Amino acid sequence: MEEFTQGVQFDTLHLSDEVMRALAERQILLSTPVQAGAIPPMLEWKDITAKAPTGTGKTFAYGIPIVEHIDPEEESVQAVILAPTRELAIQITDEIRFLTTYKPGIRCVCLYGGQPIGRQIDSLKKKPQIVVATPGRLSDHMKRRTVRVETAQTVVLDEADRMLDMGFIHDVTRLLDKMNKRRNLGLFSATISREVMDIAWVYQRDAVEITVREDEQNKPDIKQFRMEVSQNDKANVIARILELTGFDRCMVFCNTKGATERITKFLQLEGIEAECIHGDIPQKRREQVMDRFRQGKLRVFVSTDVAARGIDVDDVDIVFNCDVPDENQDYVHRIGRTGRARRQGVAVSLIADYPAKMRIDDIASKTRNQIVPVKFDADGNLAVIE
Question: Fewest C-beta atoms under 10 Å: which of 66, 143, 173, 385?
Fold first, then answer.
């Protein structure tokens, strides 16, 4: 795999004036390494296998070439993007629509479970050229014959490793078999698992392989702390730290649905604007909460790991592990929500019992992270425990 460690100026990538105008609106001038590696070969219709850490700009890496290739006069489906979760599918759709701001006639639809299928059928009647979907819901639409994807020229699997880990491999291969007129297939993944390699081997030809290492340039700058607290004092500690720091955008992770409800209610009682999502909350409500947080209208966003999958918000000030996660990878994924876009982030893990202490020690050792112990000093300020 060719390694990319630096981005390039977008104006060197020979993009259309319309896409450059959209990027300029957000003051995006420099590409990330994965964008610099993937955009030129995808513009040339080459297959791509890209291994890049979360938060490195993968959506634009494939989204820009897709938007550049779409013929607005042609009403058939020209590109299909598959994502493992509804949250990621929604987010990808938002980014694609942003890229098409100045390209009239390009339509994008988002298909996922948990939303009324009738509304999606209405959207499909508008003849979108770009379909973003979770594999299960796209399969449903194909069985109903409400969408035809065999005309797709570009197919992308985003977070391919997670999609295949979640048991979608048969759905994905069936879909790829249907889309056999494609000119290129992009696989974007944080890890290249055995299943991702199998898909690449069967469905790609002479793929350009790109890897973006998590070097110092791409690695988030996150200060990590641990704090011993009593079980009943966790919400109070979160409120005090927010008061001390003045941070505006905070994510709190809990291991259980009940914990998310309890923490949220306490923070609301303290006058802090907080909302939670978990598996029992209806999809529409979850989307409303996530939208408020993305738009900066919500200070604290409390969630379980499962509910938060696919939510990619890149300017969180601080992440709290209200409960220490059971999996090391979940810890890395949680704290990775902060410290992006070359800003320093903060992560605080609250330790209430001996098993949690053992887990955080194991996480620090296995992930090679320095997690510094802190406490409140006599004046109520945060102090490092020597």
Answer: 143
Q: CA 217 to CA 5: how far, in whole Å? A: 8
Tell me the per-residue pLDDT of 288-314, one tens digit each, with 9 for 90 and over. 888 888 888 899 999 887 766 656 566
- Cα distances from 21 to residues 15, 36, 42, 80, 271, in angstroms, run 10, 18, 20, 24, 41
DSSP string of 234-299, one letter each residue: HHHHHHHHHHHH--S-EEEEESSHHHHHHHHHHHHHTT--EEEE-TTS-HHHHHHHHHHHHTT--S
- Looking at 152, 186, 211, the residue that finishes a domain is 211
The domain boundary residue, chosen from 211, 239, 268: 211
DSSP state, residue 372: E
- 247: domain CATH number? 3.40.50.300
Cα(206)–Cα(254) distance, integer angstroms = 44
**Shared domain check, 380 and 303:** yes
pLDDT tens readout for residues 151-163: 999 999 998 988 8
Range of the domain at 376: 221-384
- How many whole angstroms separate alpha carbon 64 and alpha carbon 69? 9
- Inside any domain, residue 121: yes
